[in-house]
Amino acid sequence: MVLKSIFQLLQTRYLSVSLFLLLISVLMFQCANPVTPEGGAKDMSPPEVVECDPPNYSIHFSSPDIHITFNEFVSLKSTSTEIFTSPPLAKKPDYKLRGKTMIVDFKNTLDSNTTYIITFGKSISDITEGNVLNDFQYVFSTGDYIDSLSLAGQVIDAFDNTPVSEVYAELYINNNDTIPFDSLPYLVPPFYITQSNEQGMFTFHNLRDGEYKLFILADQSGEFIYNMPAEKIAFCDSLITPWFIPATVPDSTVKDSIAIESEIAAIAPDHALIKLKLFEEVDSTQEILKSELLMNDLFRVVYKYPPLSPSIIPLNLDSVQQWCMEEFSFRKDTVLLFPTIDLPDTLILEIRDGESVLDTAIISPTQLAEEKRSKKKDEKEKPERLRITWTPKGTFNYLKSPLQGQLTFPVSEYDLSGILLIHDGDTVVPVIEFTDLLFRKFTVTSTWKETTSYKLFIPDSVFISYNELTNDTTIHTFRTITLRELGSLAINIDMSAKPGNYIIQLLAEKGKVVEEKYLSESGQVKFAFIAPATYTIKAILDSNQNKRWDTGDYLNKIQPETVLLFPKNLEIRGNWDVEEEWKF
């Protein structure tokens, strides 16, 4: 057709044969170099429901199945975990696709006069770009009306107050004669169920009137039952009653908790947004995590929790004989054992906590020595020495803590007179003090100067351990901090509205605790001589006054201890003093 049109144009007096040849050449060049057609904008829209049969929100529902038609072809995924029905059905419906239509086959006899809600979660997406239709619900009633009451809440992490998404909010009714009400989350699926969004918000609609137990579950089994020890939970202290919220308020998929809370206050002033703290219960079963030989003459036993009455008894030794020295960690959950007598080739240890036998460990004390002897014959083996590790390892902030040394083994003899501290050409004798009963840890103190390089000289065999090891000549080099590199932070805390005993923590990046103070009344907390960084402040209401944060206990109705976070990050710079006000 194109060639015919060109030929007709050539019949006019305005075109020559040369122009005809030029046009033919251009046409042939374009045919030989095809160009990829430009596509349109990427599809970012999720599928849309165009028709439901029976219609959504039907009453007098009696159909054995539902046909839901979309405006495009869709795919279904994770139907067993993403799609749930409230109230639960004895058998899960069958979900299948036919063209652009999803068919829900109930395979169940529905209860009379009941409002059902099918929540599809993130199971529906288009097949081209994978755009997800979030939380579509199909609602129907087998009776004369659709239940119309609602509940709204938010789930936050109990330890850091961050919103928690994709956990299940579950409602239980007291309709089981054989199972105690508090035990229902352990044994049966909930009567109503929904899921939290990215802001931790959850909303129940179409609830019947009544009292409910509200339970939150980070389900790992896909059964919506609290049946795995690592699953996190939250719970409401008392039974709750739903209230009427117009269907468009709150729209928890797009609004944050502050907006929803204000809307609830406006339309239902007697009801508040329910806030629940998600936590992991402590598995109170004590056990041994590790029992191992760290090196010759050094064993380690790691408990799951600090034992109340620990004992480690050798079964193939004289049990009356004192066979080792013990050193427990700061948290009391780890113990180091330093044998003080000759041991057999195999040692059998019975590890107890009180009357409970937790483990029987079989350890070979000579294992590491045998491994050394198995090295190549031409490889010279260095004599074993007593090693020293230092804290801190980098720049020494002498205003926060002393210089600390730790020996591999407890010391039985020592001569500290030869230890010297050298700086700027001067040599002084520092003060060395042991800080533990086993004489394994010590501090080094002196009149420190800022911005100064030091060398700590420790001669050979200053320390002799109980197993007759000695230290090698050691020169520990370090530098003291410059004062203008440090800053300080003062927080004036008013706890008059929320009195109690609080642990005030200074947190660095990733929530690492840099320092903490204890406060029992309103006043100032000061963190001095701290390194420049961005910090956050956490306050823990220490309800049981054990100086640490404690999680919750569902059956004993104990909520996790309250955590408060200062509303903004605090930037500390060198040679700066920052002061802030904080009202709980």
Structural features, described:
It is elongated and about 95 Å long. Mean pLDDT is 86; it is low at 1-24, 26-37 and 248-254. It has five domains: 2-32; 49-278, Immunoglobulin-like; 288-369, Immunoglobulin-like; 388-481, Immunoglobulin-like, CATH 2.60.40.3780; 485-583, Immunoglobulin-like (Sandwich), CATH 2.60.40.10. The chain starts with a helix and ends with a strand. The protein contains six helices and 43 strands. The chain is mainly beta. The strands form twelve sheets. Strands 37, 38, 40, 41 and 42 form a five-stranded antiparallel beta sheet that branches. It has a four-stranded antiparallel beta sheet with strand order 1-2-6-5, with no helix packed on it. Strands 11, 14, 17 and 18 form a four-stranded mixed beta sheet that branches.
Short description:
Helices cover 9% and strands 38% of the residues.
Q: Any idea of the CATH topology of the largest domain?
A: Immunoglobulin-like
Span of the ends, CA to CA? 83 Å
Shape: elongated
Name the beta content range.
35-45%
Give the number of helices. Answer: 6
Secondary-structure arrangement, i.e. CATH architecture of the largest domain: Sandwich
Number of domains: 5
Portion in helices: under 10%
Average pLDDT confidence is 86
Low-confidence stretches: 1-24, 26-37, 248-254
Structural class by SSE content: mainly beta
CATH class of the largest domain: Mainly Beta
Largest sheet: 5 strands, antiparallel
Q: Compute the gyration radius: what is it?
A: 36 Å
What is the number of strand segments?
43
